[in-house]
């Protein structure tokens, strides 16, 4: 199962309808105002989660009318709407979670979502969690060997240390291969690589890499 | 002196003309395509730096005609245009560097700029370096006590650990004060605070905090 969450970031940060509908075995969750973005695209989410504070009365009535399962929270909660939605998604034991509408506008929200995904990805290593907008895909790679399939939507692949330096990083199947190199905090050397085979791999044994795939 | 660098991120990521012209003692540097954004705003930079690969012939002729000092690099250089521009700016020994046009579009470019500023801010602790777009300001706070003046442009102030957990963080003069708290990688607890006095302060003794000020 692949759970797709649409969060309430500015609408231009939401991935295209065709992309959202292209994934197999997909279940949709609307996080707060993201529920409206999904309904506007003709996608009825299985569940809507949030405080729905930012919705007009008309929008709220539409959510009540169209979405079967609604989990409405108090505005004064500890978790963000996106966090609650990812936690609900993880309970469904999916192989993959994609969060869209979570990258732009307020950069504190984007950074907060990065830290949230970092924490939850470590807690649920068997489920791949990623953020996605129209031209970027963002996720964390944990220790081990990870396969990175060629994806025609993204020309570039970049890696950053997150939380600490990451030693012994080996990259294969990309334009600039590395062998046992140190990815340090503050370095920009591991950006704009390109996958040149059917599937690249990245291997390392400790820490976590932030991987960003992007297009112009 | 305050050096303002305009980088080549998408034009909608460049701060407003009025804001750019509101700073005292400002000197402008155009980084690659950012030079055109400045000229389009009627601001003639003191210097233009970059490979200028993305410029049309007409745009390049305009740069040659209007900008006195141009530093043209080979496209196959190790540094990004933004990096070269910040290094030139630091040579002018300013109190402050503001980089605009460096936050959006390709998220790998934004992340790369974050790491770049993190590294250069540690190398030049006496110069405050920040990224700025229309609704966000991003910078790193180093150990010690830093004054954070009230700024009407930004309602929210958020802090994130960058590179490692940051212990003993004390925040004063904000809506949610903290006393000697741990800001951990993966936590989103220190977001959306608000400066409620003329000037807030943040104090800690090791590590670095990523501070993001933002508006809706």
From TrEMBL, chains A, B:
The yes or no answer to whether the keyword Nucleotide-binding is present is: yes
Q: Which GO terms describe its biological process?
A: thiamine diphosphate biosynthetic process; thiamine metabolic process
Q: Name one GO molecular function term.
A: kinase activity
Keyword Ribonucleoprotein recorded: no
The UniProt keyword set, sorted, is: ATP-binding, Kinase, Nucleotide-binding, Transferase
Its Enzyme Commission number(s) read 2.7.6.2
User: What top-level branch of life does the organism fall under?
Assistant: Bacteria
- Uppermost EC category: transferase
- SUPFAM superfamilies associated with the record: Thiamin pyrophosphokinase, catalytic domain, Thiamin pyrophosphokinase, substrate-binding domain
Return the InterPro entries for the record.
Answer: Thi_PPkinase, Thiamin_PyroPKinase_B1-bd, TPK, TPK_B1-bd_sf, TPK_catalytic, TPK_catalytic_sf
User: Which residue intervals define the domain Thiamin pyrophosphokinase thiamin-binding in the entry?
Assistant: 144-210
| NCBIfam families (UniProt xref) | thi_PPkinase
From the Swiss-Prot or TrEMBL record, give the protein name. Thiamine diphosphokinase
């Amino acid at each position: 199962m692949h759970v797709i969450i649409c969060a309430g970031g500015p609408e231009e940060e939401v991935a295209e309808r065709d992309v959202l509908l292209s994934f197999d075995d997909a279940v949709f969750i609307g996080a707060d105002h993201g529920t409206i973005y999904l309904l506007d695209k003709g996608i009825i989410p299985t569940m809507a989660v949030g405080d729905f504070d930012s919705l007009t009365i008309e929008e709220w009535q539409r959510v009540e009318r169209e979405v079967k399962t609604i989990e409405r929270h108090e505005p004064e909660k500890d978790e963000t709407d996106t966090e609650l939605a990812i936690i609900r998604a993880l309970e469904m034991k999916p192989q993959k979670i994609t969060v869209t509408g979570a990258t732009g506008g307020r950069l504190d929200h984007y950074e907060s979502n990065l830290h949230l995904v970092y924490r939850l990805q470590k807690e649920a290593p068997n489920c791949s969690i990623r953020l996605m907008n129209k031209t970027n895909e963002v996720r964390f790679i944990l220790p081990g060997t990870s396969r990175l399939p060629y994806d025609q939507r993204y020309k570039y692949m970049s890696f950053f240390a997150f939380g600490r330096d990451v030693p012994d990083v080996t990259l294969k199947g990309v334009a600039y291969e590395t062998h046992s190199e140190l990815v340090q905090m503050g370095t920009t050397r591991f950006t704009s690589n390109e996958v040149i085979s059917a599937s690249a791999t990245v291997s390392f044994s400790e820490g976590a890499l932030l991987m960003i795939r992007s297009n112009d």
